[in-house]
Amino acid sequence: MKFGVVTFPGSNCDADMIYVLETIMGQEVEPLWHKDHDLKGCDLIVLPGGFSYGDYLRSGAIAKLSPIMEEVIKHANNGGYVMGICNGFQILTESGLLDGALLHNNTQKFISKNVHLKVGSSNTALTKGLDSNKAHKIPIAHGEGRFYAGEDTMKKILDNDQVLFYYADEEGAVTDAANPNGSLLNIAGICNEKRNVFGMMPHPERAADSELNNIDGKAFFESLLKFC
Amino acid sequence: MESTTQQLATVEQAVELGLRADEFEMIKEILGRTPNFTETAVYSVMWSEHCSYKNSIYWLKQLPKDGPHMLVKAGEENAGLVDIGDGLGCAFKIESHNHPSALEPYQGAATGVGGINRDIFTMGARPIAQLNSLRFGNIDRDRTKWLVNGVVKGIGDYGNAFGIPIVGGEVFFDDSYNTNPLVNAFSAGIVDAKKIISAKAKGPGNPVFIVGSATGKDGIAGAAFASKDITEESAQDLPSVQVGDPFMEKLLLEATMELAETDAIVGMQDMGAAGITCSTCEMSAGGGVGMEIQLDKVPTRQENMLPYEILLSESQERMLVVVQKGKEQIVKDIFDKWDLHAEEIGVVTDTQRIRYYMNGELVGDVPAESLVLGGGAPQYQREYKEPAYYQEFKKFSIDNVQEPEDLKAVADFLLQHPNIASKRWVYEQYDSMVGTKNMTTNRPADAGVVNIKGTEKALAMTVDCNSRYVNADPEIGTMIAVSEAARNIVCAGGVPSAITNCLNFGNPYNPESYWQFVGAIKGMSAACIKFQTPVTGGNVSFYNQTVTNGVEVPVFPTPTIGMIGVVEDKNKIMTLDFKQKGDLIFLLGECTNDIASSEYLYSYHGIKASPAPYFDLEKEFATQEVVKDLIQKDLINAAHDVSDGGLYTSLVEMSMPRGLGFDVEADGEVRLDAFLFGEGQGRVVVTVSEDAEDEFIEYLATIDVASTLLGHVTKGKLVVDGEHFGFIHEAKELFDNALEKRLK
User: Fold this and answer.
1) Nearest one of B139, B143, B48 to B103, comparing CA atoms
2) A212 Cβ under 8 Å from any chain B Cβ
């Protein structure tokens, strides 16, 4: 499978993502530039974390208008795989590829720390390979990560089993205390109805290198490789 | 309007701009005529304390500059460069942004982060990690809370968007910083030694470019502002505070990294203090050339800016670049790709003079060399005098301090003290993991450890200074700061390589403040020679004090030490957490009957007058050598130094990560409060697993360093001399949440 990692001006997790996909997972990766009009034959497009266009106006609000996003939206509508991490998730909700919105954390502060994730739906390429009983230790680092959706949208997300991950405690219990940012129902990531677009605030690419002593995130990429 | 800035300056105007009357005379002598207003403004910023180091350079020159691991010595380029092997160099530096942060904490701190990172990547080094060292006044004051919130958010917002992890730092509170907080930011970067970008202009005829942001009226004469006292009137200097744009800085970083890969570039310097003035003068003086600069070609944010405003603006995220003639297009294309300005504003000449033009008219003509540090800028040796308190403090005796009956209560008091409690509230607002290089996120250690991907190595880094010790005894206190930094590097498995320093002191014209400065330099030299860690650069920040009704109260003298060290084999990174129940706990280093300058004495007993704690440089070094050896021989499974809060705090810190505890016996030779809470230096706690016990004990017999078996690791109970001090989850609850509670 060929991965495409998009660099927007202000992306700062693009190199980390490329390192994990290429060096740790041994995959072919094509760097994509925000001004490109071509996805260069990539099968799975990753929108990495960072502060695209400075996150001015609103996180992801300007990135959705970039030339590359026109192509990414077409790719997704044709059933191609797209994954957005952190700022990438924000861009996906802004572009309408995913439902809901990501608001300022309820603490009104940026939060950078390890959290634990419980798998929601196992019926996606990203989650099928994950142990659904395990609490996966994955870092977050964001100021605007509070997932929100209106009642009808929320009902649709739940009815269609679109929740990828919930914030949980070390034992895997989804509790208020384990919710770092005030996300509705502790939601940390969702997919679209067609299950080919994934968005999540936590950073699995920050937990995939054994030299950093936490490889819980590696399983996320293994799952993609196996089930995409 | 031009005519006013072209008119000859008067001595009153010069003084108004921050020059001294005799300095104005010096300028007249250099130029052979009376300078105009624009030229006087140029001299006023270049000869300000901030740019010229005029009151400190005599002493700074006495610091050790060279060592076994140096690629570039201090002062030759923007930041010193340490050889870390594999053809790689590490550029690192620490800088203050104290005065701006005192007025506008958010932007003041943010632009401090921006400035220090530009110093690193302007050399062609990609920043890999940041640290910061923050000092605030009394935590219960509303103004302190406002400053803490603003500074932390400023550092976070800038650093998080810029995308370089913050891997460590320190936060300290004391009344002496009530008016004047200290914000010291550190950055380290890695560069291919063959691709270092010079900060020198060369080759007459080569074009000069300004790249990055447009120039505005923000931060005009910020360097001059940084060179005077903070007073009640300082709020009027608010226009001197710059405004940062981390997004622009990120683009500038990426464009610079691409530029470093080409052969189009002769030299480059970031525009920090004194903006275009400083970068044109320093690059020209560095290369022994001159420049002609067309100020009207500088992209500006507003119309009708005067020549001196363009020259003195400290708008952020700008660089001056000297390009190889004929290769201009390469540079333009790279900056075009990143949607950044790159405007040709002048040319290198062989005149050694800087000539500034506005719409074809010459508005300033000055010899480059006359403006810069090490050239014509003034250098003064200030008077200094030992203050009376120094001998007073030495009269302290532990015998006059009543030992409290309930030491458990003291322990809980200290664990919740803002200087000791967890700084989680602060560091969780910083992205510590971007870059996927922070090796200490999941493995706590005494220093930040950063992975150098694709090699066997890692880089350890730390910032340290207990300014209470430095106040008590500048010379010993600063030796301790260097030693503690080295101890932290060593306990993390590294070998200290070099230091950068941020010297925060009071008014240099105050002989007692200056005595503290001189003592600090002497102590730093002695310790740096011992540890073979040369000083690669840094900065001096004077005028940190409160002036109330004409009385100056300086901040605690604070020579912050930023140190890096190389971990040759990243499999040998040492962590600080207890690993399992039953492991033996040993103390290396002398246990002394000393509570001088401890947080315990200062805050619990409220006794402010005492000398620096016990310290012996030779013994300190010997202990650190033993720790290095033990790590190499795989004989220990945890190491943590004894510092603020004393041994008890260290033991709790080692217990918390895995929820374990300790059962220790005190040393009968010293008072129990001194044993638990004294801050005598040169001590490291290590743990030994059952398997390694025999070999470890055999090893102890071969060394000449004091060692004591303290006890063993427990499942979570904390026991001292058979007395129950509670459970680790209780201690952790106090330790983790104290700061947040106090800041609410």
Assistant:
1) B143
2) yes
